[in-house]
Amino acid sequence: MNIDKLEIDKFTQRTHRMYRRLTDLYENLNTMPIMPDVLPQALVELGSASEIVGLATEELHQQNEELIQTRTLLEAERQRYQDLFEFAPDAYLVTDTLGMIREANHTTATLLKVSQNYVIGKPIVNFVALPDRATFRSYLTQICECTKVKELVVRIQKRDGELLDGAMTVGVVRNQQGKPIALRWLIRDITDRKQVELALLKNDGDLTQNRLGHKYSRGESISLNSLSTLWYVCQGCVKLSTLCETGEEVIVGLAGEGMVFGSSLTTLHTYQATALSEVELVSIDLAEIAASPNLSHTLLPKINQRLRQTEFFLVVAGRRRVQDRFQQLLVLLKQEIGQPVADGIRLSVRFTHEELASACCTTRVTITRLMGNLQQQGKIGLDSKHHIILKDI
Residue 252 sits in a domain of what CATH number? Predict the structure, then answer.
């Protein structure tokens, strides 16, 4: 039963009239005799008003019960979604568009070995390993322009300093006008998966067994005439390049130890392979790969490694400023051919300024200037054999 506004107004008017009549009765009780028809009429009005009050009270009780039930259901639903957030199997965070953490679930705290309150208000980049922060910041500045969910693999640093390999999936939250207002991050620990891939990358038994080795000296060209074979690098590093319209060389990849390359992995009309150091290779026929599941399984992560490297080279080439391209190239070289030494990370291959310039689509003079600036800033150095040592890159 619903009491509309008209009924409430009528009830209010009748109650006021009854109140006035009762007031008059009380005031005149001692001074005037009670007229026979006044008291019964007042009692009738009082009874009628009491009935309306009773009905209104009953309606209010019913509505109150319904509100309590609705609130209970809403609270249960809210708690269910809160539990889904808190105890999701992966770490879940919400940040603003600059990467400042607003919310973090229980799994995040467990993954990072911190309390939930500790991470609130912190930049998410604080939990990225120091060597990966430059790449992550570059990723963060571009993510708001994306319309699809993106994934980035970086090393995560826990509060106690322990590192893990993490896959970050991020989605952009936009308002009704389409403006980015927040970022939602899902972080998965893929350390075990990376270790399996690394084991496969190092599983060279099936690749080198009973195969003839081919050795090349630094600067020698490697034949890429056959489309039916892959080259596997047992030792050294190979530069993969093409030629632009002006005839200048452009580096498109580096094949280090444990990696593969060949004409079958590219559609470039001009494709060159040059030894950057003393190199030892073995060739693997594609027909053999197709016939051997084990061989295919071993080679797959190595081909994936080349694919990821190629995408990184695209990121390098996409930078507008030369200094940004050069710094991103150093980050890539650090990951691919870096070796820990006392002063930092030493590149195992000695690059000429010309080779670095071709990888950055710039001139040798510009690279020489940038190298000098970085040396003055203490970010890089050179060893006795002119290998670059990265100190703060």
Answer: 2.60.120.10
Nearest by Cα to 275 from 240, 302, 227, 304: 240
Rounded CA-CA distance 220/241 in Å is 13
**Which residue is listed with tokens 């494709």?**
271
Residue 371 belongs to domain spanning: 198-390
Question: In angstroms, rounded to a whole number, what is the distance separating the alpha carbons of residues 26 and 14?
Answer: 18
Residue 342, Cβ density class (10 Å: 0-12 exposed, 13-18 middle, ≥19 buried)? exposed
263 and 217 Cβ atoms separated by less than 8 Å: no
Looking at the fold, whether 165 and 240 belong to one and the same domain comes out as no
- Do 225 and 301 share a domain, yes or no? yes
pLDDT at 210 over 80: no
Dump pLDDT digits (tens) for 356-372: 988 888 889 999 999 99
Residue where one domain finishes, among candidates 67, 84, 101: 84
Say if CB 63 and CB 3 are below 8 A apart: no
pLDDT digits (tens, 9 = 90+) for 146-193: 777 767 888 898 888 888 888 888 989 899 888 999 999 999 988 877
Tell whether 76 and 220 lie within a shared domain.
no
SS3 203: coil
Count CB neighbours of 133 within 10 A.
Answer: 16
- Would the pTM of this model clear 0.70, i.e. be above it? no
